[in-house]
Amino acid sequence: MAESDTQAAWMKDWQSMQKQFTNAWTEAARQGGQAQGVPLHEGFEQWAKLFGGNESQSELTERVVQSAKQFVDFLQGAVGKVAGQKAGMEVPNWAEVAAQAMGGVNLAHNPVADALRSVTGEGAKGFEQMFQELSQQASPFKQAVGQMFSMPAFGYTRETQERYQKFAQANLEYREQLNRYNQQMLKASQLGLGRFESKLAERSEPGRALNNARELYDLLIDALEEGYAEVALSDEFRHVYGALVNAQMRVRQMSQQEVEHGTGSLGMPTRSELNAVHKKLAEYRRRIAQLEEAAGSTAAPVAAERAESPAAAPRRRAASKAAPKAAPARKPAARAKAPAAKPAATRPPSFADRLAKSRSTRRTTKGGR
Amino acid sequence: MGPMNLRPDAAIGEVTRLGQKLAAGAKVLREVDSNVDYGATRKEEVYREDKLVVYRYRGEQAPTAKVPILIVYALVNRPYMVDLQDDRSLVKNLLARGEDVYLIDWGYPDASDRSLTLDDYVNGYIRRCVDVVANRHGLKAINVLGICQGGAFSLCFASIYPDKVRNMIAMVTPVDFHTPDNMLSHWTQEMDVDLMVDTLGNVPGDLMNYCYLTLKPFRLNSQKYVGLIDILDNKVEVENFLRMEKWIFDSPDQAGEAFRQFIKDFYQGNKLVKGGLKIGSKPVDLKRLTMPVLNIFAEQDHLVPPAASRPLRGLIGTSDYTELAFKGGHIGIYVSGRAQREVPSAIHEWLRKRGG
Fold first, then answer.
1. What's the first-to-final CA gap in chain B, in angstroms?
2. What does the pLDDT look like over A259-279, one tens digit per residue?
3. Nearest CA to B318 among B176, B158, B174?
4. Which of residues 4-33 of A touch B (CB under 8 A)?
């Protein structure tokens, strides 16, 4: 099917859903009852599929769809309450409407916890997601831990068992801290929804009423942010957050040590060995820089052409022309195109050139004595 | 009187508009490339060391400024925010006013860089970059424009090497890390950063992003995308959005040792204010900043609250201190329309009055 046909088909489906939506709420308004929500979600799902194999837009469309679904749930909840309301009826519990639209308020699912989970994706990964990845990678190890616990703690496995016991304790500690953290998120959600109620009460004053669902949604976001910020800036949260991060790092560190045990026994290079090599490299880089400076070569202009600013002084030295260089080294699997290097770019003298110059300078000095 | 005047027909209207925007958006999103290009201004490489590159930007006409500006950007984000696109470019606007602009692009540290320290960055890289730019112009001192974390580094640099800095411009720069509204700082206070760096090595950019986005999780991860639907039928606006989105999620990993010291001495120890900070073997005392200082901060900055920047006034040794409070946020200070009008001209005028 051609792109335009696909889009037209989607539009037709959307209009059909929109009609159902209209009918449902018109009827509800007429009868003073509660209408059933219309599955506008399906419209968003279908919309996301319009991009088919366009991987580059998938992350963005996913985020749009997630947010739009939440907004529409909220809109349907809001309009449902208003449409069915007759004079003298009880004022709707808006916090409840918001909570329902956002998937409920309990320890596992609450607006704040869900919002934090939704942060993750391409380019953003939180502690919880990092731990999930670690858990998957460490599953053979965790299996071994389980087996070890059923074995007596003596003999040649004693040392290993001790390590495993510590690992199990660290895992338990992490779970405990995660639970404390989730309690904080629940508290933030409850606070936020409470704030929402207060803000709505303010809007009951003459001339301050909200006129559409979008305004109501924005007010909810303000309230939830305020509730979250109050918790996130509290002393209690600071303790909990620090403890959670530290607990996870301990589990991660132990997992890495076990991987090192395994890979080391197979004769493979380990992270620790690579770290040691990189540390040495960094030390050499510092020493080279010091040597170059001692030789007076680093601070020299490295571009072939001199600056043309009015301040350019005549005592500048000429620099040699060189081939263009590429843009700075990029992150592996970079998400963006590297900015193209301009052909006018110039390169510094090679390290060999500068070191040779440095040696030559020192020899001259020595010889002069 | 209730809080809502919402009528079903108005709600139906909202759903109708949503559908129209989505339909138009489907067409627009197909037309635009999510890897939108960025960088508006021609630039050339003038210095390279390890992964960093110093660029010199080229304007439409030759610079008239006597002293060049070196922009020292943060390590935690990519520096192309200062030259994002043609109509959102601090660099372009500075060049248009005759300034001569250089920038340090730190590149993307990898595992081999985990041992890089703040000593390497400040006493090594920044110092050599400043020397290179100064030598190109036959000067002993140049203007330094430090941004965010790069501003904190620049303040340290200016304290250690005051003779190399003619004028110091700090932009959205944290100085007091212990203000009550600093959420990021609050979260780091009980983190065992030694354990973290020993375990992770370099700190992943994705983790850094997560932390920034969780400062305002509803606004940055839900409301923002509902807002995107409003502009889905506008190709230019969508491209602007995508360009910003790319920048937000394009964060380099942080060299482990430098991160360790930055968290310990700046976030936890607040040593720029309390004193006792050393970069390598060199003590940092902000009283040694006797050159003119321009401190630009954003009034709605949630990453570097104004209260974190303002204390600079009382800590430095200069009598020539100027403050510019920008009406906007941490990102808006580079890309908003107001920023294009106000920030480059403020910097330019301030420098001109100081012979820079």
1. 62
2. 888 888 888 888 899 999 999
3. B158
4. 7, 10-11, 14-15, 18, 21-22, 25-26, 28-29
Q: Which residue of A has its CA nearest to B67?
A: A311
Mutate which: A7, A21, A69, A79, vs B, most B CBs within 10 A: A79
Long-range contacts of B277-283 (CB under 8 A, 24+ apart): B277/B156, B279/B118, B279/B119, B279/B122, B279/B123, B279/B156, B279/B160, B280/B117, B280/B118, B280/B119, B280/B122, B280/B123, B281/B119, B282/B123, B282/B160
Cα separations (Å) of A242 from A189, A197, A256, B184, B302? 20, 32, 21, 12, 21
Task: Provide the chain A residues 180-219 that lie in CB contact (below 8 A) with chain B.
Answer: 200-206, 208-214, 216-218
Residue A99 confidence (pLDDT):
76
Q: Which two tokens stand for residue A179?
A: 């639970």
Closest CA to A10 of A47, A52, A57, A51: A47
Q: What are B35's two structure tokens?
A: 């890897």
ipTM value: 0.91
Look up residue B186 and give its two tokens: 């609050």
Are residues A69 and A44 in contact, defined by beta-carbon separation less than 8 angstroms?
yes
Place of tokens 């910003």: B244
Nearest-by-Cβ selection for B44 from A29, A289, A342: A342
Q: Is B165 helix (H, G, I), strand (E, B) or coil?
A: strand
CB-based contact, A265 to chain B, within 8 Å: no
Assigned token pair, A351: 């390290």
- What is the Cα–Cα distance from A105 to B263, expressed in whole angstroms? 35
Inter-helix orientation angle A55-83/A3-31, to 10°: 20
Q: What is the Cα–Cα distance from A117 to A167, expressed in whole angstroms?
A: 26
CA A155 from centroid of its chain's CA atoms: 46
Task: Check B245 against A216: CB less than 8 A apart.
Answer: no
**3-state SS, residue A36:** coil
- A249 and B132 within 8 Å at the Cβ level: the answer is no
Kindly determine whether residue A221 and residue B46, on different chains, have CB atoms separated by under 8 Å: no
Q: Would you place residue A229 in the very low, low, confident or very high pLDDT band (cuts 50, 70, 90)?
A: very high
* Residue linked to tokens 């439409």: B60
Bridge partners of B105, per DSSP, are: B53
**SS3 label, residue B83:** strand
Q: Is A137 exposed, middle or buried (0-12, 13-18, 19+ CB in 10 A)?
A: exposed
| CB-CB contact of B318 with B291 (8 Å) | yes
Chain A, nearest residue to B207 by Cα: A125
A71 in contact with B, Cβ within 8 Å? yes
pLDDT digits (tens, 9 = 90+) for B235-282: 999 999 999 988 999 999 999 999 999 999 999 999 999 999 999 999
Q: Which of residues 244-263 of A touch B (CB under 8 A)?
A: 245-246, 249-250, 252-253, 256
**pTM, to two decimals:** 0.83
Q: Is the separation of the CB atoms in B95 and B63 below 8 Å?
A: yes
Q: Quick one: closest CA in B to A322, which residue? A: B46
Beta strand B142-147 pairing with B69-72: parallel
Whether residue A278 lies within 8 A of chain B, CB to CB, comes out as yes
Q: Which of A59, A245, A309 sits opposite B196 (nearest CB)?
A: A245
Buried (b) or exposed (e) across B153-177, using 16+ Cβ within 10 A? bbbbbbbbbbebbbbbbbbbbbbbb
Say how far apart CA B138 and CA B140 lie, in whole Å.
7
d(CA A233, CA A236): 9
CA A15 to chain centre: 35
Which residue, A38, A64, A36, A34, is CA-closest to A50? A64
Characterize B53-80 residue by residue with b for buried, 16 or more Cβ atoms within 10 angstroms of its Cβ, and e for exposed: bbbbbbbeeebebbbbbbbbbbbbbbbb
